[in-house]
Amino acid sequence: MAQKLEYLKETASQTAGPYVHIGLAPGAAGFDIYREELGHDITGPNAEGERIRVEGVVTDGMGAPIKDVLLEVWQANAQGHYAHPEGGGAVEEGFRGWGRVITDFDTGVWAFETVKPGASKGRGGALQAPHLNLWLVARGINIGLNTRMYFADEATANAADPVLTLIEWEHRRATLIAARIDGGPLPVYRFDIRLQGEDETVFFDI
Amino acid sequence: MKNTGDYYQRDRSLQPPALTPGYKTSVARSPRYALISLENTVSEITGPRFGHSDIDAGDNDLLSNYAKPGESPIGERIILHGRVLDENAKPVPNTLIEIWQANAGGRYRHKKDTYLAPIDPNFGGCGRTLTDETGHYAFRTVKPGAYPWRNMVNNWRPAHIHVSVFGSGFLQRLITQCYFEGDPLIPICPIVQTIPDAQAIDQLTAKLDLNATVPLDSIAYKFDIILRGRRSTMFENRMEGN
């Protein structure tokens, strides 16, 4: 008799639904319950590097902003190290590199402040250009969508990035690059995410 | 042996596709181009870590974490417990689980929920906890009620608890829903039916667990969560990070 392979199967995903805030950001649902909600402070107080603001909207196939989307950001510090045992090196005390972001319920605009990440080590020792890893969930999204945000002012690093260059259609690479806007209290990177359309954002099966 | 290899590729045939017209909201919210497949890099195999300083001991008791002193929510008192394992059946310890749900009447404490069932003054509807060293977690709560929703005119969600898990890498990040054994609404729910595989649906259905009840107090359901597995490094002739 043939031997059996005894692997378990990954639990299936389900949509986060319209009320995801109750579980992950109850203040936004309209009530306080926890001592502290998680994900508001991405960098902690000791992070080195350039302080930046990232903002955008997520639009649906009608071109309308999605007002109930929740995003999580995962990033390296300015040295390109993630706060994890396999993250490539030490990080500043209090640096988590993870944040949870919700939209304004009226406009769909979301924003967060952080530090600009450094280049991190990729596969085979190739450097990955500085980037943020983003994960989106919302009503109507059956399984969380993974994407990356790169920085427009890192053109040289972007041109050599092993993930960006993996995207066969060069014009689609531009959907992952945030424009830099100077002049405010912090440099702003604008990153709009489009779920459908000709300029649909590139999403990854990671 | 310490596992340092790549995570297993996700089996998409057991996961809901993005476009599922029976669940109407997915039509405008589903990417149409193919996902770009990535080999694991440090950006995906790492992920946030949480500890006991992030949460409080009572955060996993929805019977008391929002109730006024001496009062408790209305409804069937339940214990929801289980383990977080990976596909190799290895426990995932110290990982954050967050849940949210409607009250026993099927109403969420959310400013956007306008269903006519009443808000329960003693029920917030959210909880969180960390798995222990063996991957176990437990919550106390009330069994949520079924409720109608605007998809077809007469769609009802089965009783369910939303569950969010981190795992140890960003590519294990999961949000799902826990259903309850025996609920006749499960097979006709358009959101459940986004999942193309009957066994995968069954895996989302918590089983009655009489052995875990508290007699004369709470009934129990068991819900195990499986995250993606990871190859062990069977051969050492590859460079680290290959």
Count the strands of chain A?
Answer: 12
| Oligomeric organization of the protein chains | heterodimer
Class computed from helices, strands and strand pairing of chain A: mainly beta
Radius of gyration of chain A using CA atoms only: 18 Å
Give the strand tally of chain B: 12
Number of helices of chain B: 2
In one word, what is the shape of chain A? globular
Q: State the distance separating the first and last CA atoms of chain A.
A: 36 Å
Note the beta-strand portion of chain A: 25-35%
- Main β sheet profile of chain A: 9 strands, mixed
Distance from first to last alpha carbon of chain B? 18 Å
Task: Please state the CA-atom Rg of chain B, rounded to the nearest Å.
Answer: 19 Å
> Helical residue percent of chain B?
under 10%
Q: Quick one: overall form of chain B?
A: globular
Share in helix of chain A: under 10%
User: Which runs of chain B of at least 5 residues are low in confidence (pLDDT < 50)?
Assistant: none
What does this structure look like?
- The complex is a heterodimer of chains A (206) and B (242).
- Chain A has 206 residues and is mainly β.
- In chain A, 9% of the residues lie in helices and 28% in strands.
- Chain A is built from four helices and twelve strands.
- Chain A has helices at residues 20-24, 26-29, 155-159, 170-173; strands at residues 51-59, 70-75, 98-102, 109-115, 120-121, 127-128, 131-137, 145-151, 177-181, 188-190, 193-194, 204-205.
- The longest helix of chain A is centred in the first third of the chain and has 5 residues, at 20-24.
- The two termini of chain A are 36 Å apart.
- With 242 residues, chain B is mainly beta.
- Helix content of chain B is 4%, strand content 25%.
- Chain B has two helices and twelve strands.
- In chain B, strands 2, 3, 4, 5, 8, 9, 10, 11 and 12 form a nine-stranded mixed sheet that branches. In chain B, strands 6-7 form a two-stranded antiparallel ribbon.
- In chain B, strand 9, helix 2 and strand 10 form a beta-alpha-beta unit.
- The longest helix of chain B has 5 residues, at 198-202.
- The mean pLDDT of chain B is 94.
- Classes of the chains: A mainly beta (206), B mainly beta (242).
- Chains A and B meet through helix 1, strand 5, strand 7, strand 8 and strand 12 of A and strand 1, helix 1, strand 3, strand 9 and helix 2 of B.
- Strand 12 (204-205) of chain A pairs parallel with strand 1 of chain B, so a sheet runs across the interface.
